[in-house]
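Ticket opened by: R.M.
Priority: normal
Category: complex prediction / small molecule

The reporter submitted a protein together with zinc ion and asked that the result be attached to this ticket for the collaborator who will pick it up next week. Submitted input follows.
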Amino acid sequence: MDFVTLETDDFEYGVADEVLPGVTRVVAHNPSKFTYRGTGTYIVGDGADVAVIDPGPNLDSHRDALAMVLDGRTVRSILVTHCHADHSPLAAWLRSESEAPAYAYGPHGSSTDDWDIGSLPDDFGRPDPADSTREDGDGAEPPVEPKVEEATDTAFTPDVEVRSGDTVFADGTIAVTGVHTPGHTSNHMCFAMTSPTAGRVLFTGDHVMGWSTTVVSPPDGDMGDYMNSLRMVAGRRDDVAVPTHGSPIDRPGHFVGQLVDHRLDRERQVRDAVRRGRNTIPAMVTDLYRDVAVTLHRPAGASVLGHLVKLVADGEVVVDAQGAGAQPRLDSIYRAV
Ligand SMILES: [Zn+2]
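Result attached by the on-call engineer:
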């Protein structure tokens, strides 16, 4: 499928851009393979009172840019989609500056359901050092350490725990409510805005991205929940979806339906790979992601684990030789049922 990208979308880091009537975006300078060009912080409101969605990472440049853009406006609500390190950390600063409450589903998911997901072999998904010597010659940069997971801001705790349908901001014309969308993280929340000028807008955080598929990484990420949350969003009648990373998506129902199909295809591929005897995650990733850069193979391994957790829960795959009820891990052996 084709993803919408920011390639055609002019923006400058740290500068307020009006992306929709009553919605401005400031992009933080934290580009990466998880964040694309960077985190988009949204400021919502037609008048002096505003809500800020995902204040963003602890970067001085981003904090200063937000301070400038918010000068002369009153922050009434701080809305946090989830507490990955590129979304929530500046909420602490904004809370002390504005005294506005921070709204979110909750802190990062409790660890009661967590299990040890094991690890991939050290050399898996690392670029071959011989290749980088050939390409980069002398003085080459050290190879980048691929990360499997996004860092978590465990310090974040909301002032107000939001449930679906709760109003989190209203200014007389615009109203914003919470929409719980577990999957990317168990506490992930989208925010739905209704406005006479912009229509029905869903701020999707990392649940629906404009440029890539979302990482769903166990144990806190849950593929079954994620697909249910995608179907729920696909069934809404939003005029536009506004992701944290990437451009707004018009008529998102169709786009999100394609995301569901894409995940179902991947699930089928993982199940078929297990049936063909690809019984470890590295073997499945090497097979299914052969067209994807090797530096993305570790995050791909986390995604495949996400699918395997769902396939094991659905009774289609079992974890072999670890006893009944064993939780799927990155280093488990799998068998088709
Ligand atoms: Zn995230």
